[in-house]
Design a protein that fits this description.
The complex is a heterodimer of chains A (163) and B (737). Chain A is α+β, with helices and mostly antiparallel strands and 163 residues long. Chain A is 34% helix and 15% strand. Chain B is built from 21 helices and 28 strands. In chain B, strands 9-10-7-17-14-15-16 form a 7-stranded mixed beta sheet, sandwiched between helices. Chain B has a 5-stranded mixed beta sheet with strand order 12-20-19-18-13, sandwiched between helices. The chains are: A alpha+beta (163), B alpha+beta (737).
Chain lengths: 163, 737
């Protein structure tokens, strides 16, 4: 066990953790931020996706040691009130069904839009191929990403908690 | 869920306690008790069960089914709100307490909207009637002189108003109207039902606020991860927990028994810890000696051999019109095909889990479950806490697909909590979930048919062999192995004067249960592939051929479940024609591209799908588009009907392209998404859904979109390549040019 400093959604937390603990469990069990989900534990499904310094990262295989002192954004940090363009687009397109994969989907989409503000279908498919949805919302996710891209006035999406 | 299990709602109403209900699930005693309860339910005051109104007019409606993504949290309250006559935007929704006396909780068999439509209309109408009566009494006028308008009762030439908020206290004390006599709205006057309505759970599913089973946190809660024997039916002979206990954060290690009756849980050794990661690490550090149990030699190869033996012999006769064997024997041209479908995992996005707090004389549970009443019975069974003292909260869940109806993950949590005297959340890893599932049955099915010179079906013989669900769950003297294995194979819409269906099953220890559309996930593929093979053999267009075989309009009774709606061939034909038309059926397609159609009837809903595929030279398949026509009777929320079709299609396609669970040495060989692949966005086709307007009673939507997808794709692949897929998952090598 060791002291680890995690900066999550702009707030710093100093926690006593096993350095090898995946960030996912520190978020969910130590900080009670349960918006980031467990789906596979081996970075295959994308449900655990967070942003670390703006980059999409699988928190199930990123240790707290590796995440220490970096800026972590979880779904809870995207906005205070569902006002992020992607969240607005997700709601307009009625994307979620069970909803379990959607935190990871939205963060992966946020990372995509920060690199490709007006992505093509092929770019969306490629960027989102790591995020599994068992309820079959892929078509609506694509539509929502296009909608958010069209709605964005800035060319770069600025993310809360980014450096 | 099978139509048989869905129809338990009708069975409850009609059957005696010992009769219909006991057929349905492994829980014999509790289900019989449920059936009795539902018959004996006293009339329920809608203001206790369904509607709460504050003096200022805020309305909260209760939802008693499980929201697993299918949209019931929105659709069911829409029905209540319509008859109650309140402003939808002001309505709040809450999950019902688990109370089988008041509510029919079980969510499955595509039966939530279908089964709740009339009861909720009546409940809403009864509440409205009581509010009107309260107003009329207040004004000393006749109820016929009063009308309602979005939360207000209005009377007289000056439109005097009393709001529901002002009336509710008096209204809720009035006698409950006879539900068979309440006035229901004329559907022509619906203002809420039938409109695409934003789902109420969408916002919380976009900002991390939605609480799934795995997100439950209660004070003092610990986390447990369980080591289960890798082989079916095995158990821990002995174990050494020294290393497990040495993992920081591990608090305890307890062994729990397998629970057979109604749960078929594996039992095992639970490591209990302060956080999930420590529990997982602790479990990995256990040293266990397993008694591998009676099924340790079970394998996919052995199963295939048993299938081969059984498919070669006649089975138990399920249906026998005329003399199919005779007609086939004397036919000049006979067509035969044998199909193989594998075991399939549910692979819900959220793995199984359950949180239970067993106290001295009560218990509380937070369960992502499709059956909170059964969860309650299961907890009572293993803890001996009386049912009235068990409070089960139904959480949101990351997918159900039939898996979350089971009680195995519930009893485990109750057992661990009882053993350690603390609230505990049992977490299943993805590997646990993949390897301790209750799989969709494996099946081998052979079909034989003869056509006359005009291309009409003379004989149709369908022999089905599968790893039977009922044989796995029910004692041998009571099991009806064929019950959830046949589905619409027993009442095809195609006219066949000689029509024979047979069934047999090998003994098997492989755990099987309901997987989205159950028996129709199998018979949809085999029937719609075979009729397509006949069409091509007869050199006829597959759409025209089907229409010819269906013939004149008639009703085809569901011979397995006579209480279900008969298949109305005019509705069946309508979806076939609509899907064909919207897909541009008949227009030329380039080389190595093709269209295929399939149409199925399941859960009283008609679905036709046309798939368009492209096949690369090496056989790699791309499904480009699926055009879907659906008739599910009256639609509550049109956008969600589309969403459920999209969902079912992707679920079915994932299985058709990738899904296969294999067994070796009595254990499942797959473990995670690396070796049990599922469909990802780049493979998702464009899906277009067309809903047939209908005023028939609403019928199911959760599952009916599954059965036609795989055969539509297989039929498209034949059109594209001339190669017939007779086994799933589709293999690239089988389709190379």
């Amino acid at each position: 066990m060791a002291e680890v400093s995690l900066i999550v959604n702009g707030s710093k937390h100093v926690l006593d953790l096993q350095p090898g603990m995946p960030l996912l469990w520190a978020l969910r069990d130590s900080l009670n931020l349960t918006g980031t989900k467990y789906g596979c534990g081996v970075s295959l499904c994308g449900a655990c996706t967070v942003l670390i310094d703006g980059k999409p990262t699988r928190s199930c295989i990123t240790t707290v040691a590796d995440a220490a002192d970096k800026h972590i954004t979880t779904i809870e940090g995207l906005s205070k009130d569902n006002s992020h363009p992607l969240q607005q687009a997700w709601i307009a397109e009625e994307v979620p069904q069970c909803g379990y994969c959607q935190s990871g989907q939205i963060l992966a989409a946020a990372a995509l839009l920060s690199e490709h503000p007006k992505p093509s279908d092929a770019e969306i498919d490629e960027a989102m191929s790591g995020n599994i949805c068992r309820c079959g919302t892929y078509q609506r996710i694509r539509a929502a990403i296009h909608r958010a891209a069209a709605a964005s006035k800035t060319t770069r999406v600025v993310l809360d908690g980014g450096s | 869920m099978s139509s048989s299990a869905r129809l338990d709602r009708r069975a409850f109403l009609k059957s005696t306690a010992a009769g219909g209900a006991a057929l349905v699930v492994g829980f014999h005693f509790p289900l019989a008790a449920l059936a009795q309860q539902s018959q004996q339910r006293p009339p329920v005051n809608p203001f206790n069960a369904w509607v709460r109104i504050t003096p200022s007019g805020d309305v909260t409606l209760t939802m008693a089914k499980s929201e697993m993504g299918q949209g019931v949290m929105t659709a069911l309250p829409m029905i209540l709100a319509e008859e109650l006559d309140v402003e939808w935007s002001r309505v709040r929704i809450e999950q019902a307490r688990t109370d089988p006396q008041t509510y029919s909780h079980g969510t499955g068999g595509s039966g939530s909207v279908a089964g709740s439509y009339l009861p909720l209309r009546k409940a809403g109408a009864a509440a409205r009637a009581m509010l009107v009566t309260a107003a009329a009494q207040n004004w000393n006028v006749d109820v016929s002189a009063c009308r309602t308008e979005k939360g207000k009762v209005i009377h007289g030439p000056r439109n005097t108003v009393l709001t529901y908020g002002e009336l509710v206290e008096a209204a809720s004390k009035l006698p409950i109207p006879d539900l068979n006599k309440v006035t229901l709205k004329n559907p022509a006057d619906f203002t809420i039902i039938g409109k695409s309505t934003p789902r109420r759970d969408t916002p919380l599913k976009t900002n991390g606020a939605a609480i799934f089973g795995l997100d439950v946190r209660v004070p003092g809660m610990l986390y447990a991860v369980i080591a289960r024997c890798p082989t079916f039916g095995g158990r821990a002979k002995s174990f050494n927990a020294d290393k497990a206990r040495a993992v920081p954060g591990v608090k305890d290690v307890v062994q729990i028994d397998a629970i057979a009756a109604g749960a078929n849980s594996a039992g095992g050794v639970a490591v209990v810890a302060e956080n999930t990661w420590a529990a997982m690490q602790g479990r990995d550090a256990l040293q266990i000696e397993w008694d591998l149990g009676p099924h340790a030699s079970e394998s996919s190869e052995l199963l295939s051999q048993k299938f081969a033996e059984l498919i070669a012999k006649p089975g138990t006769v399920i249906r026998n019109d005329g003399d199919a064997e005779g007609a086939l024997a004397s036919a000049t041209t006979k067509f035969e095909a044998t199909y193989d479908l594998p075991l399939l995992a549910h692979a819900t996005m959220e793995p199984m889990n359950c949180t239970v707090d067993v106290r001295a004389d009560s218990a509380e549970a937070w369960v992502p479950t499709q059956g909170p009443d059964w969860a309650m019975f299961a907890i009572a069974q293993v803890t001996k806490v009386p049912r009235e003292k068990i409070n089960v909260h139904t959480t949101l869940m990351g997918g159900g697909f039939g898996r979350r109806y089971q009680a195995d993950f519930v009893v485990e949590a109750a057992q661990v909590s009882k053993a350690i005297g603390k609230p505990v959340q049992v977490v299943w890893t993805r590997e646990d979930d993949m390897q301790h599932d209750f799989y969709r049955q494996a099946t081998r099915q052979s079909l034989a048919a003869a056509l006359d010179d005009s291309g009409k079906l003379v004989a149709w013989r369908h022999r089905i062999v599968s790893t039977s669900i009922r044989a796995f769950w029910d004692p041998p003297d009571r099991a009806k192995p064929a019950q959830q294995e046949i589905g619409s194979a027993a009442f095809i819409p195609y006219n066949a004067p000689n029509y024979r269906v047979e069934y047999s099953n090998p003994p098997s220890g492989i755990p099987v249960a309901w997987w989205r559309s159950v028996e129709d996930s199998m018979s949809g593929f085999t029937v719609e592939s075979f009729v397509d093979e006949l069409a091509h053999a007869a050199k006829q267009d597959p759409v025209e051929f089907r229409l010819k075989l269906i013939g004149e309009q008639r009703k085809v009774p569901n011979v397995l479940w006579p209480e279900a709606h008969a298949l109305d061939t005019s509705r069946h034909v309508a979806v076939i024609k609509l899907a064909a038309q919207k897909s541009g059926w008949g227009s030329a397609m380039p080389a190595r591209r093709g269209r295929g159609i399939a149409a199925t009837y399941a859960f009283d809903t008609y679905v036709a799908q046309v798939a368009e595929v492209s096949v690369a030279g090496d056989g790699k398949v791309r499904v480009d588009r699926i055009v879907c026509a659906v008739d599910c009777g009256r639609v509550i929320n049109p956008d969600q009907v589309k969403a459920q079709m999209e969902s079912a299609i992707i679920y079915a396609l994932s299985a058709a392209l990738h899904g296969e669970i294999t067994i070796a040495n009595g254990a499942v060989q797959q473990s995670n998404f690396n070796d049990y692949e599922v469909l990802r966005m780049p493979e998702a086709p464009k899906i277009e859904v067309f809903i047939v307007p209908s005023e028939a009673d609403p019928s199911g939507m959760g599952e009916p979109g599954v059965p036609p997808t795989a055969p539509a794709v297989a039929n498209a692949l034949f059109a594209a390549t001339g190669k017939r897929v007779r086994r799933l998952p589709i293999r690239t090598a089988d389709l190379s040019a």
